Amino acid sequence: MSSMAGRRIADFVHKTAVTGIFATFLYVGVGVTGQLYEGISGNKGEKEHPQAGFIQTIKAKAEEEYRKYYDIDKREWYNKDVSSFLFLARYMY
Q1: Following CA atoms 60, 61, 62, 64 in sequence, which dihedral angle do they give, to the nearest 10 degrees?
Q2: What are phi and psi of 5, to 5 degrees?
Q3: Which of 21, 36, 68, 71 sits 20 to 30 Å CA-CA off 3?
Q4: What's the pLDDT score for residue 51?
Q5: What is the pLDDT of residue 66?
Q6: How far lies 54's CA from each of 17, 44, 51, 61, 69, in Å?
Q7: How far apart are the first and last CA of the chain?
Q8: Which residue ranges of the chain lie beneath pLDDT 50?
């Protein structure tokens, strides 16, 4: 009798494992199919970011500052006509 009970338990465990693997396969398949369908139809559900204008302003300002930093012809921190820098430099050394 114990051999019969062991077989029943083994059959139950096997059926449970196979059913679980099959269900996981179907679940992943449905998810991938949904993503493929969404990509093909072009309906990505993307909305404009609520702060898109602000982000674009920050990007433009960063780009402007980047260009200004590498422009070696014009420095904002030194003006030849203003002698305050030279005045300070004279007393610092």
Answers
A1: 90
A2: -65, -40
A3: 21
A4: 86
A5: 82
A6: 53, 23, 5, 11, 22
A7: 102
A8: none
Residue type at position 22: F
Output the pLDDT for position 39.
75
Query: What is the value of pTM for the model shown?
Result: 0.41
Given this model, what pLDDT does residue 22 score? 97
Locate tokens 């610092």: which residue? 92
Cα–chain center distance at 60: 20
Give the number of residues written for the chain. Answer: 93
Q: Are 85 and 78 in contact (CB under 8 A)?
A: yes
User: 73 by DSSP, 3-state: which?
Assistant: coil
User: Is 38:44 a contact under the CB 8 Å cutoff?
Assistant: yes
